[in-house]
Design goal:
Layout (H helix, E strand, L loop, with lengths): L7 H8 L7 E8 L6 E8 L12 E4 L12 E11 L8 E8 L10 H11 L6 E11 L32 H14 L3 E6 L5 E10 L2 H19 L3 E3 L14 E6 L1 H4 L4 H12 L2 H8 L28
Parallel strand pairs: 1-5
Antiparallel strand pairs: 1-2, 3-4, 4-5, 6-8, 6-9, 6-10, 7-8
The protein binds magnesium ion.
Magnesium ion (MG) binds next to strand 6.
């Protein structure tokens, strides 16, 4: 066992201590990086049945890159409720939006505007499915299971692979999958990816804002599970330079019109509209306005060029 690591088996004994009638609610939010998650726990006197049953809470934004001026209090507004697979029982995970002292949504609260758009698009019944790829890293930042002084064999045998020489970290993938099911996340599958130590899970189909809520909580569970295994999960689009695939989050989308007979017309219309705002969309896809995806979308390694819009059947 490494320095600073504890034996997680010992914790089991403490989880068996009855907690009485009270419930532990872990509030989860996205910090100022637009990428990392933060969490803290509050005791509730009874089991919440909806996010509305969870009180508004707050935290110090100066420690999460979310401070504004002299008033650094940021408020947590519960928006989605999940079962807590770690504490079990009635305990909950509570996804939150962030609000400023003046009751305005925080600049880093992208869910607020997203939800407004989803409300406007409600009649179209927008469905999403997102394929989240990620890479497992050892505590030294090197991909899990890779030789410490060198590289694994070239890509080819790893995608959907089986065997100790093909995949690394399956126990983490299994633990995460079960946690998602228990939490109530609409997870639809997993697979090993093209680069060794790279994996994917899929969330969806989800309607409207539920897509973001379920994906972000699934990401939280991934980081939390990895913590137990002393491994790091990164969503970096290109964790290893060279002849190695990157990791993306492919978004699948349809409206009610697209799903009905003759829906190809609606699909063609949507493609036409998307094609007119390619640069704008690329900027919106990652917190660094495209700078991160630029490293992955090179046209090689199963990607398209970041500069070109393309469509096809
Ligand atoms: Mg994939």
């Amino acid at each position: 066992m490494g320095f600073g690591h504890t034996d997680k088996n010992v914790l089991k004994r403490y989880y068996e201590i009855p907690q009485g009638d009270r419930v532990q609610a872990m509030y989860v939010w996205i910090d100022g990086t637009g990428e990392s998650l933060r969490a803290k726990t509050k005791t509730l006197n009874e089991e919440p049945k909806s996010p509305k049953d969870c009180p508004i809470w707050n935290f110090d934004g100066s420690s999460t890159y979310q401070a504004e001026g002299s008033n650094s209090d940021v408020y947590l507004h519960p928006v989605a409720l999940f079962n807590d697979p770690f504490r079990g029982g009635k305990n909950k995970l509570v996804l939150c939006e962030t609000y400023k002292y003046n009751k305005m949504p925080h600049e880093t609260n992208k869910r607020h505007t997203c939800n407004q758009v989803m409300e406007r698009a409600k009649e179209a019944k927008p469905w999403f499915g997102i394929e989240q790829e990620y890479t497992l890293l050892d505590m030294d930042g090197h991909p899990l299971g890779w030789p410490k002084n060198g590289f694994p064999g070239p890509q080819g045998p790893y995608y959907c692979g089986v065997g100790a020489n093909k995949v690394h970290g399956r126990d983490i993938v299994e633990a995460h999958y079960r946690c998602c099911l228990y939490a109530g996340i609409t997870i639809s599958g997993t697979n090993a990816e093209v680069m060794p130590a790279q994996w994917e899970f899929q969330v969806g189909p989800c309607e409207g804002i539920q897509m973001g809520d379920h994906l972000w909580m699934a990401r939280f569970l991934l980081h939390r599970v990895c913590e137990d295994f002393n491994v790091i999960a990164t969503l970096d689009p290109k964790p290893m330079e060279g002849d190695w695939n990157g990791a993306g989050a492919h978004c699948n989308y349809s409206t009610l019109g697209m799903r009905e007979p003759g829906g190809i017309k609606d699909i063609e219309q949507a493609i036409d509209r998307l094609s007119r705002h390619h640069v704008r969309h690329i900027k919106a896809y990652d917190p660094k306005e495209g700078k991160d995806n630029e490293r992955r979308l090179t046209g090689a390694h199963e990607t398209s060029s970041i500069h070109d819009f393309s469509a096809g059947i």
